[in-house]
Amino acid sequence: MLAGGLLLAVGGTLWASLFISLVYGSGENCAPAVRAFRLLVWAIPAMFPYLLGGHVLYAVGKQRQVTQAMLAVGVLNVTLNLVVIPRWSDLGASAVALFSEWLLWDLL
């Protein structure tokens, strides 16, 4: 699952301009979206394993651990966004989201 996520992330990084232009049209206004997409797409490799880990924990009766991890990451995400968004805007929010996804994978 991690390997598949890595392939999606590499493909998303390489073809970010194409994907953004297909969805939103081409133009100079799309450049910030391409940068943010190239950063956010690297959350995909973490999503597959953390979803699997979360489901395994549910299956073995450790739902509380999943809830605690998600709560901790959620609080940290909101706190970091309050700090980085005023300074780095969409790229700051993208970096925090990316960090949060990988942290959740680590916790689960």
Runs in which pLDDT lies below 50 for 5 or more consecutive residues are: none
The overall pLDDT average reads 94
Assign an overall shape: flat
Number of domains: 1
Element string (H = helix, E = strand): HHHHH
Broad structural category? mainly alpha
β-strand number? 0
**First-last Cα distance:** 15 Å
List keywords for this structure.
108 residues; mainly alpha; 5 helices
Can you give a write-up of this model?
With 108 residues, the protein is mainly α. It has one domain. 86% of the residues lie in helices and 0% in strands. It has five helices and no strands. It has helices at 2-14, 16-24, 31-40, 44-59, 63-107. Helix 1 packs antiparallel against helix 4 and helix 4 (44-59) runs antiparallel to helix 5 (63-107). It is flat and about 50 Å long. The relative contact order is 0.14.
Layout of secondary structure:
Blueprint: H1 2-14, H2 16-24, H3 31-40, H4 44-59, H5 63-107
Helix pairs in contact: 1-4, 3-5, 4-5
In short:
The protein has 108 residues and is mainly alpha-helical.
